[in-house]
């Protein structure tokens, strides 16, 4: 806590409850607060408008406002001020909905005590501070809301909940690299985030994109933790990134950027510490440069410091196509589960990079008819089916899909709403939202990208009966074959492609079956079921290891 007193506004109409809160706050030695009280929303809003409030404790049922409306009016009046809901036992569902809508936490009045109240206030303030600037990312908010929803359903211990909400370690670096003209020095931000170190080394890709920030990398690292745990891999989650547009850089510029980024985070990574891999904007070549830079620094070759590297440098057969292949294994499993015949089934794929292109290829091989694909440059549509081989050749030559001749053109928004049986999202986050969820017209929505669907959209899609294969399950093929690459590297042996694909399929189908069974048993959606599976494994490990010291 800072030395400054915290200004708390309590909006509560029940005088007994208000008195209890005042007494508890005054009796909590770790808090230095001033407290103002209001019995109606109108009085509360007047105090809020006057300014200076750090946190609101809010009863949702007041004489002049009821339920969620109460929260929304407070939140609209002061969006930057965190709100903790005070709820009665029989209004728990309402309080949980308010948290999903943006409230920081809730406390049950009948079990209120000084420790719980003090903790909620301190953590909420810490979280609100962390949410400003670099941390303030819609993706982190999504990852945290998904986690809190799963935690709520599984009744997760509050100690573990607080511990897992933010990553364990983050490193922010700024560094320069020369542009090709040798006159310009570009300085960029880079990140490496390790979410959970409990499970073994940490593992996660490196993203080069102009929107990367600490919050986005933290969200991706958090999802990596649940993904590795769901797949039973001996890793915690990590992620890295550089805020740069790689499409405007030459190969030489990318190499200089990569080598300097690696040098900046070198203390953080290592085959037993944290193992990077490719993600958006990076590829096998970038991994080769990272591995070479690390090896130059330590003085001998260390292939296992990265995965997703070229096969000739110790990469694994099947890694390049693993994420797309795994996603199609999951689409086939979802089709079996829902009774959908994939033969001739119309499929749409958003994104035509590593994940999207291989997803389209394997969907075609599985008998589906890929009628639309897109990338950053355009969308393509052909109701008779596109030739994926021809599209891959075109992109290899032209870098993007733009001007591909044998198809009609459509926008990414139109592509998402195209009627199909399978919609695979393999580009960016935040693609299916409250705005367009209603118009999504597919039977299976498979997430190759991380975080492509918002929480509100999830609800609409579930109501429409669309089977969602969530990202932590759908795109786990990449990290699973990365794990195989690391195991082969540490043991100096190689597996055949058949062995790799067979093991990948077995691991992913096992995770699919566990997720479906959990969803059915607990009456929850697929995403929450997958997260509960992952969070439960991490929780078990954390409890067994205990708190140091
Ligand atoms: P990539 O850079 O190879 O490809 C990204 C694709 O998305 C490109 O075709 C690009 O043109 C397209 N794209 C970018 N902006 C777009 C927009 N506004 N509209 C439509 N398309 C757009 O990246 P990738 O490795 O294929 O990663 C794609 C997604 O999959 C990311 O969310 C990533 O985190 C996730 N993912 C990747 C892996 C992996 O092994 N590469 C593993 C797990 C998850």
Automatic annotation (TrEMBL):
CDD domains documented for this protein: NAD_bind_1_Glu_DH, REC
Sites of 4-aspartylphosphate modification: 59
Record SUPFAM superfamilies: Aminoacid dehydrogenase-like, N-terminal domain, CheY-like, NAD(P)-binding Rossmann-fold domains
GO MF term (any one): glutamate dehydrogenase (NAD+) activity
One record GO biological process: phosphorelay signal transduction system
Span of the signal peptide: none
InterPro entries assigned to the protein according to its UniProt record, in alphabetical order: Aminoacid_DH-like_N_sf, CheY-like_superfamily, Glu/Leu/Phe/Val/Trp_DH, Glu/Leu/Phe/Val/Trp_DH_C, Glu/Leu/Phe/Val/Trp_DH_dimer, Glu/Leu/Phe/Val_DH_AS, NAD(P)-bd_dom_sf, NAD_bind_Glu_DH
Keywords: Oxidoreductase, Phosphoprotein
Family: Belongs to the Glu/Leu/Phe/Val dehydrogenases family.
Name of the featured protein: Glutamate dehydrogenase
